Amino acid sequence: MQTLTRRNIGLAAGMATAVALTAGSMIAFTASAAPISGETAPGFSDMVTASGETISLADFADQTVVLEWTNHDCPFVKKHYAEPVMNMQSMQSGATEDDIVWIQVISSAPGKQGYLEADGALAKNSERTSAPSYTILDPSGDLGRAYDAKTTPHMYVIDGAGTLAYQGAIDSIRSAKVSDIAVATNYVTAALTAVASGATPEVANAKPYGCSVKY
Q: What pTM value is reported for the model?
């Protein structure tokens, strides 16, 4: 009877370990799975902004949302913020005028290139006259990994129904040259135009380019 009890305990422990490992594997797979255009965008909640607010994707139901991964020291980010074109700032202000929620995300880890604390993020936006609706501080990289953000910039457009309409590069010319902006196809602008008319963007995915996100 005693031997049987020990055996049962051993079997139970083994089963518990197997279940735990399986659950852990499933969680890891889910967290690292890339989002799919045309399907529901990954949700997020209680994300802290540079202004001290906490926001969730659900707060913006029925509104189009743009997510912009940024790193102020990245040459490719500097390209789109540089004077005199100020491409990113123009896109931000144009979007917010159309009641689109534009969210910058800083996923650089502490000590890595592009990391900013709240005051620094607000000062940087003021310095370059940036106009996002919010700037999320994501030093843990949790939000970046949920969206599989790979580069700065890496852009996402989410429609009012919560569907990921576009993800990828900001435009079609993979360079850090400001002069290329004028002749490139802006995929984000095209996606926003399509979403506004109730259509599916012609380009829903484009390989992102820029600096790697500094997780």
A: 0.85
The average pLDDT across 85-111 equals 98
Residue 192: pLDDT over 50: yes
At 31, which helix (H) or strand (E)? helix 2-32
Q: What's the Cα-to-Cα distance from 93 to each of 90, 99, 122, 130, rounded to whole Å?
A: 5, 10, 16, 8
Q: Quick one: 189 and 87 in the same domain?
A: yes
User: Which CATH number covers residue 71?
Assistant: 3.40.30.10
Same domain, 49 and 25: no
Structure tokens at 150: 């790979």
Q: What's the domain count of the chain?
A: 2
Three-class SS state of 146: helix
User: How do residues 118-144 score in pLDDT, each as one tens digit?
Assistant: 999 999 999 999 999 999 999 999 999
How many angstroms from the chain centroid is the CA of residue 214? 13
- pLDDT score recorded for residue 33: 81
Q: Are residues 151 and 178 in the same domain?
A: yes
* Domain of residue 198, residue span: 36-212
Higher pLDDT, 187 or 4: 187
Relative to beta strand 154-158, strand 211-212 is unpaired
β-pair type (47-48, 54-55): antiparallel
